[in-house]
Known about the structure:
The complex is a heterodimer.
Chain A: H1 3-17, H2 35-44, H3 49-63, H4 103-112, H5 116-123, H6 128-146, E1 150-153, H7 154-160, H8 162-168, H9 179-187, E2 190-196, E3 206-207, E4 221-227, E5 232-238, E6 249-250, E7 253-258, E8 263-270, E9 284-293, E10 299-306, E11 311-314, E12 317-320, E13 326-335, E14 340-349, E15 355-364, E16 369-378, E17 386-395, E18 401-410, E19 416-425, H10 428-436, H11 441-452, H12 454-457, H13 462-475
Parallel strand pairs in A: 2-4, 3-5, 4-7, 5-8, 6-9, 7-9, 8-10, 9-11, 9-12, 10-13, 11-14, 12-14, 13-15, 14-16, 15-17, 16-18, 17-19
Antiparallel strand pairs in A: 1-2
Helix pairs in contact in A: 2-3, 3-9, 7-8, 10-11, 11-13
Chain B: E1 2-11, E2 14-24, E3 29-33, H1 40-48, E4 54-62, E5 65-66, H2 72-77, E6 80-83, E7 90-94, H3 95-109, H4 117-130, H5 135-138, E8 141-142, H6 148-162, E9 166-170, H7 178-191, E10 197-201, H8 206-210, E11 215-220, E12 223-228, H9 230-239, H10 242-252
Parallel strand pairs in B: 3-10, 3-11, 6-9, 9-10
Antiparallel strand pairs in B: 1-2, 1-4, 4-5, 7-8, 11-12
Helix pairs in contact in B: 3-6, 6-7
Amino acid sequence: MSSDEQILEELTNKEYEHGWSVDFEADEAPFGLNEDIVRFISMKKNEPEWLLEWRLKAFQTWKGMAEPKWPNVKYPPIDYQGIKYYSAPKQKKGPESLDDIDPELIETFEKLGISLQEQKRLTGVAVDAVIDSVSVATTFKETLGELGIIFCSFSEAVKEHPELVKKYVGSVVPVNDNYFAALNSAVFSDGSFCYIPKGVRCPMELSTYFRINAANTGQFERTLIVAEEGSYVSYLEGCTAPQRDENQLHAAVVEIYAAKDAEVKYSTVQNWYPGDKNGKGGIYNFVTKRGICFGDHSKISWTQVETGSAVTWKYPSCILKGDHSTGEFYSVAVTNNMQQADTGTKMIHIGKNTKSRIVSKGISAGKSQNSYRGQVQVMKRAENARNHSQCDSLLMGNNCGAHTFPYIDIENKSAHVEHEATTSKIGEDQIFYCMQRGIDEESAVALIVNGYAKEVLNQLPMEFAVEAQKLLALTLEGSVG
Amino acid sequence: MLKIKDLKASIEDKEILRGINLEVKAGEVHAIMGPNGSGKSTLASVLAGREDYDVTSGEVDFMGSDLLELSAEERARIGIFLAFQYPVEIPGVTTTNFMKTALNQIREHRGLEKLDAVGFLKKMKEKMKLVEIDQSLLSRSLNEGFSGGEKKRNEIFQMAMLEPKLSILDETDSGLDIDALRIVANGVNTLKSADNATIVVTHYQRLLDHIVPDFVHVLYNGRIVKSGTKELALELEEKGYDWIKAEANLETA
């Protein structure tokens, strides 16, 4: 070792002993996580003191927690000190034109039928497409503003509507809820905030797609949706275009609050990079999504189409606190190659006459592992609670796995809980039948899979559903024959 | 239209077809009869291109194409249709959607434009009338929860939609009551023309009262051991298959 290197090493070691020194002027945080990093993030975002305190509390909680080991997934240990938890939201210099983009990605765009302008926007090619979306976003915001609907980035909400954020953040997913939720609470970068005032029916699907600053929310996203009494909103998360991201670990939190008679419909299409055929690379998607039906007769409905990520750990849940409230969960989770998914829901019945419905459709191909994990809990005072769960698994080939872990916990005798589960294989008979009618093998698989997932796809808004159908076919391309 | 020469096929090393020779011309109806296990359904499957069977020798020429070289969907696209003995259920996919996908892939293959929703619907209405099938059946998941009769009628409806050159009906009469049998047979007869041909695979004579064949062949032990006209079918009905078996066994002995 040269003397220079020796000195360097001593210096760095020494610095480590005394804790980290952080350059608060820097555009990005150094690797690793400690209290100073949390302060750094909060300062960079000009956050109020209460939010910093909240983050620090979350960080302390996180430090005392252990990563959950119960999901049915395997991945190498995550080095939490090997991650940079903040980088300035300014864009890196984007590619000059679509010619600079991975041709495979462009091919996928074309198969999905995404317009050229949109392709540019998604890959970060800086052109007038951005101007397009600015104008769209502006008209959009005006319409919403007239109704009193707030739809903005989380950071903006902290500045403009601190009282709302303070009241609801962490109220559905407390900082100590789980390891990844605690981590997110400590270091979340940005996300979306949505507030629907009393009695307002949001006239359009709210989509992060229209929010221009949504592109760079990063790996620790936080979303908060508040629906006041008698309001309605349908919220769309994600985009069917493939998302390539340098960050391997994603730990998002979504919280939904529904007051009396309010209804929130939350739809996701998740298509993060799943890694290559051998399981190299790919996103770890560890998400906490939960909604509370706080008021009587409120309703929260989750619909998800999960096709991406190397490892998925996700249980969009409903706490049915209000009497006569309803929770729904519709899910299609597809895994191919080496992907692993452990996903499902929790329905917690607290109020009287609460209802929940679970429809889960798992599709496994390649060497992937797909698990449904669901919990139905009926508390003591939840008179006449009703639940119906249907969990279907579809297998393609002989090397994949499908697993079902239902947990049912009933403390009230008047509950009616039904659980149905099926496992089937795409039969050669089905494929031959299609082929005998002139349909090629790939299209036959797409047809069969979309038929299988129909009940869930029907829950998606029309445009989203069409893209989701194409996406299912694309994900499974080459998985037969 | 179809020329089969010395066709041999086996499944898991068991030889099922042991040298089939058959010629079918446009405008003709051929009935293939025979006792259980004689290879009737295997012949239908091999012609349609099911991969479970190994074709060990022989030639099949279909309108100038070497059929054995083509995949199942290519065969369908050039005009071969198999009405299945056991139509397969595809949950969540309606017959309408299924037919739209199939028809457009076939049209694409033939260099025709895809049918739009209006054109497709018009064609569907027309064919529905032809085979006496109800709209409600076509909006349900394909074959799921269908009765035996509904499944077979649905097969004939698909045949009407795809307008094949050669239709192979594999035991289409099995599981049908008299009324359903009549409707299915009417459909087949209406679709018959001078340009297309039909092969009816059946165990019993009764379907042939409704779909009158030009030729009747008896399949036994993987070979056509006797051919004749519709009178042969009546003779079989009366005397059973034993005398044919005896004759055939005598020849091979």
